[in-house]
Amino acid sequence: MKVKNIQTYILRTPLGNERFFSSQCSFPERNSLIVKIETDDGIIGWGEGGQYGPPEPVAAVVKHVLSPKLINKELQNPIRIWEQNYADTRDFGQKGTYIEALSAVDIALWDIYGQMLNKPVHHLIGGSFRENVFAYATGCYYRGEDVLNYKDSLPKLAEEARSYVDAGFRILKMKVGLLSIEEDIERVKTIREAIGPNTSLLVDCNHAYNVFTAVKMAKELEKFNVMWLEEPVVPEDRIGYREVRSSTNIPIAGGECEFTRFGFRDLFLGGCVDIAQPDICVSGGFSEWMKIQALASSFGVTVIPHVWGSGIALAAALHVLASIPPSPHTANTVPLQNEPIVEYDRNPNPLRDELLKTPITLQNGKVPVPQNPGLGIEVNLDVISKYGSEF
Ligand code: CA
Questions:
Q1: 64, 122, 123, 306: which is the annotated catalytic residue?
Q2: Which residue from 170, 208, 220, 318 has the highest number of Cβ atoms inside 10 Å of its Cβ?
Q3: CA of 326 to the centre of ligand 1 (A)
């Protein structure tokens, strides 16, 4: 079987009045870089690469660097292809755009490989420990035009938080870091009161703080029973991560901006995180995921993938989540304590909601793992044409 064709699509959906903010930036649109690989006997695989930056550079690497190596070549095991591509681009592409492009191609190749072998991807990367995954809602960003006038937004914030509990979520993630600690703590207090004591709360800073501010924030958050504190300091500051982690009893999460087994090795050796958050579309795809997960388990670090993109990214994350062993093993499973949870983005994103013919939806607080061969998804080509164009 040979690779016949590789197409890259850039999908964009402007959000208009629905735009929202993290501590770092506004989100005026959602976008995704989608890769479609077709074999000479008609199997089609889908992948997605990158989550935060502009999609064009990732598309350029797929089109101009990786595709020429694969087209008209015999299809190999995706791990072998990953190793060859990484070796070819190592001197200039150990992190960032190149790894995001490798991720997109790797996910599409595993989709094809699964269809060839008639097995869902999770069967091929370690087996299935669960058919459904507890979901946490990612929401409660800064919203509205007057984003800094936080006091006016508190009733709406409470309403939004409560809507997730009403929808069946038992875990909610909110944003901090755009305002002063005092102002953000008022938002945390508003949400904690809205969701009550029985819903777990995760707090994401998007690396808004230096170490002493992060330590101060963590101290304040300890009063609100916070389940994890995400990206307290910039991802490069591994010593800072360790200092914040040793200063608080709140577990520290991070890693959505980290790449490959080599990046995560350094995060683990540095004692930086309790929870590692590789994004499958960013950190190297399924092939690299297996190495990161193995490393994490040897360091006693829990892995909960970061998920942000279209329905393809969500499906990819669910396959790896199915394959994570309960950690540590007990005769029972408790979400996050020893059972993985899936990030279920609740911000507006038509690409997540419309791209798959059968969208992946919440059922009783859990999300089902696709069970069909490969990624187990069917992409709606009309939606590709509606929002996207070929690069
Ligand atoms: Ca995050």
A1: 306
A2: 318
A3: 23
pTM check: above 0.90:
yes
Centroid of ligand 1 to alpha carbon of 207 (angstroms): 9
Question: Would you state the structure tokens that stand for residue 369, as one six-digit string?
Answer: 């793992």
The yes-or-no verdict on residue 148 having pLDDT over 90 is no
Helix extents (H) in 210-279: 211-221, 238-247, 260-269
- Does the annotation count 306 as an active-site position? yes
Q: What share of the chain is helix, strand, coil (3-state, %, to 5)?
A: 40, 20, 35
Q: How far is the CA of 307 from the centre of ligand 1 (A)?
A: 9
Residue 206 CA to ligand 1 center (angstroms) comes to: 6
25, 92 contact by CB (below 8 A) = no
Q: Can you list the domains of the chain with their CATH numbers? A: 3-118+380-390 (3.30.390.10), 124-368 (3.20.20.120)
Task: Name the residue among 354, 280, 301 with its Cα closest to residue 125.
Answer: 280
Going by C-alpha positions, the residue among 282, 291, 375, 387 that lies closest to residue 37 is 375
In terms of DSSP bridges, do strands 3-14 and 132-138 run parallel, antiparallel, or are they unpaired? unpaired
Pair 329, 390: CB distance under 8 Å: no
Report whether the peptide linkage leading into residue 328 is cis, meaning its omega lies within 30 degrees of zero: yes
**Percent of the chain whose pLDDT exceeds 90:** 94
Task: Give per-residue pLDDT as tens, 6-33.
Answer: 999 999 999 998 999 999 999 999 999 9
CA of 164 from ligand 1 middle (Å) equals 18
- pLDDT, one tens digit per residue, over 229-274 is 999 999 999 999 999 999 999 999 999 999 999 999 999 999 999 9
Q: Output the pLDDT for position 3.
A: 98
pLDDT digits (tens, 9 = 90+) for 53-63: 899 999 999 99
